[in-house]
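Query form — protein Ribbon-helix-helix protein, CopG family

QUESTION: What is the three-dimensional structure of this chain?
INPUT:
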Amino acid sequence: MADKSRAEYFRERRKNMKQLVFMVDREKAEQLDQKLAKKGIGRTEWFREKLDEELYQEK
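ANSWER: The structure tokens for Ribbon-helix-helix protein, CopG family are given below.
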């Protein structure tokens, strides 16, 4: 029964979420990781903030 519940959870999650995967230069990625570590935030949080800025900020 737990497997069905887990499967249903991910089925619903995929209805609401979309995965973005892309490659970037290793050096730049490491620099970004260092900068984000100093700020105490992760890549996902940072990207979501940038995405919101791009989509909802009036220009």
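ADDITIONAL NOTE: The mean pLDDT is 93.
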